[in-house]
Amino acid sequence: MARRRQIYEGKAKILYEGPEPGTLIQYFKDDATAFNAQKKGTINGKGVLNNRISEHIFTLLDHIGVPTHFIRRLNMREQLIRQVEIVPIEVMVRNVAAGTLAKRLGIEEGTRLPRTIIEYAYKSDELGDPMISDEHIAAFGWASQEEMHDIQDLAIRINDFLSGLFAGVGIRLVDFKLEFGRIWDNDYGRIILADEISPDCCRLWDMASGEKLDKDRFRRDLGGEAEAYQEVARRLGLLPDGEDSAVLDLESHRKRRGK
C-alpha cells in the first residue's frame, strides 16, 4: 500500500493528499495545545470525538445552506475534505464574556454580552495570532471587502444555528473560532467554511451548572477533558449512554478487534 503524502501538520490535525484532485484527507490527532502551544499534552480519544462532532455539525450546516469543505467521514479519525486556499484570518464569535475578552476588557467571565461580537486574529503561530481589525485585513489584502461581508454573514448564520443546536441539549455556546477558505472556479473565488467545529475551538458550558465542556478544562488544569468531550458527543446523540470509552482510543479499539 502506497504511503500517503503529508501536506501539512498543525497542532491538532494532519492533512494528507486526497484520492482525487482538489481533495485532502484530514486526520484528527489526540494532541492538545494551549497558549500558542506553550502548553502541550494529550486528551485520549479527542481526535475520534472531534472528527465525529465536526462531521455532525458540518453536515447540519450544509443542510441550511452554509458551504463547507467537508465531503464525508472516512473512518474514526479521518474525513475527506475539499482543498481550499485558507484565508489567514481566525474569526472569533463571542456571545458571553470569557477567556481573553474578559481579561482584556476587565469584564467578569460569564457576563452575557449586549450583542454578539466578532473579532479577528491574524493566523500566525510565530506571532501568537495577534488581533487585527478590518483595516489591517484590507490594507494587507488578506481578504477582499466582498469576502469579508461573506465571512461576517456566514459567521452570524453559523452562530445563530449553533446557539440553538447546543441550547437544545442544555449547552450554552459561549464563543467559538472559525476558519474560512477559498475555492476557485476559473478566476472566481468563493468563501466556504473550513477547519473544524468541536470542543477544541468552542467554549461550551452546561446551562444548568456552568460546567465547562471544552478545551478550557485542559487550559486551566481542571481535569476530566476526555469526559467533557464525550459528554458533548453524548448530548448531540453521537455517543450512546454507556458506550465503552475504550472505543475512543484507536489503538485499544484495534486490539479489541484483533487487528
UniProtKB/TrEMBL annotation:
Keyword Nucleotide-binding: yes
Single GO cellular component term: cytosol
Pfam family name, one: SAICAR_synt
Listed pathway(s): Purine metabolism; IMP biosynthesis via de novo pathway; 5-amino-1-(5-phospho-D-ribosyl)imidazole-4-carboxamide from 5-amino-1-(5-phospho-D-ribosyl)imidazole-4-carboxylate: step 1/2
CDD domains reported for this sequence: SAICAR_synt_PurC
Membrane spanning stretches: none
One Gene Ontology molecular-function label: ATP binding
Coiled-coil region: none
Domain SAICAR synthetase/ADE2 N-terminal span(s) in chain numbering: 6-235
Reactions catalysed according to its record: 5-amino-1-(5-phospho-D-ribosyl)imidazole-4-carboxylate + L-aspartate + ATP = (2S)-2-[5-amino-1-(5-phospho-beta-D-ribosyl)imidazole-4-carboxamido]succinate + ADP + phosphate + 2 H(+)
One of the GO BP terms on file: 'de novo' IMP biosynthetic process
Keyword line: ATP-binding, Ligase, Nucleotide-binding, Purine biosynthesis
InterPro entries: SAICAR_synt/ADE2_N (IPR028923), SAICAR_synt_PurC (IPR033934), SAICAR_synth (IPR001636), SAICAR_synthetase (IPR050089), SAICAR_synthetase_CS (IPR018236)
The EC number(s) this enzyme carries: 6.3.2.6
Methyltransferase in keyword set: no
Record-stated family: Belongs to the SAICAR synthetase family.
Name of this protein: Phosphoribosylaminoimidazole-succinocarboxamide synthase
Organism the protein comes from: Sphingomonas lycopersici
Gene: purC
